[in-house]
Amino acid sequence: MASTRTCPHPTAWLTVSGTAVLAAGQAPPAHSLRPKVAAVLARLLAGEDGR
What we know:
The protein is mainly α. The chain has two helices and no strands.
């Protein structure tokens, strides 16, 4: 993790939104989010929470 305090070079930053990736119907890389967790979150975003 980086912030302006630890890395004052914003041109070197990459902002990643797991929610945006899941909402677009894509799976985030397994190294950033476990596939089982991604599947649960995708179902919740789709409104299929199982209740």
